[in-house]
Design brief:
Blueprint lengths: L2 H6 L6 H20 L13 E5 L1 H18 L4 E2 L1 H4 L6 H11 L2 E6 L7 H12 L3 E7 L17 H15 L4 E3 L6 H26 L1
Parallel strand pairs: 1-2, 1-3, 3-4, 4-5
Helix pairs in contact: 3-8, 6-7
Amino acid sequence: MAASSLRRAVVPFSATASRVLARKSVGAFVAATRKPTKAPECTPGVEVFLSHRGVDTKSSVAGLLYDRLVQMNVRPFLDNRSMEPGDKLYECIDEGIRQSKVGVVIFSRRYCDSVFCLHELAMMVEANKKLIPVFCDVKPSDLVVLGDPAAHSPEDLKRYNRAIAEARRTVGLNFDSENGNWSELVSRTANIVLKCLEEEKSRRRSSH
């Protein structure tokens, strides 16, 4: 379109138009992450994927759990610890989920208002990954898709709600950050992860 045409086509930018653009942007992101790609180099042999809302838990339970798992010779994936400058963010995240055997989902108050977190959760559920929910300052019944529903396509809303329902039905760890013991939470979660990985290895050996 010519510049002159663009000037003539100026229209008021309504709230509805904003929601439509947001929905298209989210849809484009999800579609892009579903495209088959070569396995990124940032995800060699991932065993555990850590899904979390960065602003809530990156500097607390997520980072502490990552360090503990590494000490136990487990290969975890945590976005800011597993990737280097120049890595493709969405490709690395999706490949990390595909390779993982276990998914630790750290639910926090703002987890469900992130489309990236919801996508990670939905992808893990759809891939039948072993889920270990950690409810940090939030109850399972509090888990709902937050924000403007119009920002998500109907298909994605169904995916997210199915994944949230699955997480609600899964026994997890409840944690109160004000009164709980962080070290105990990290140790218990790491031990559960290790047990799940050992059970997975035993199943594979028995199937051969």
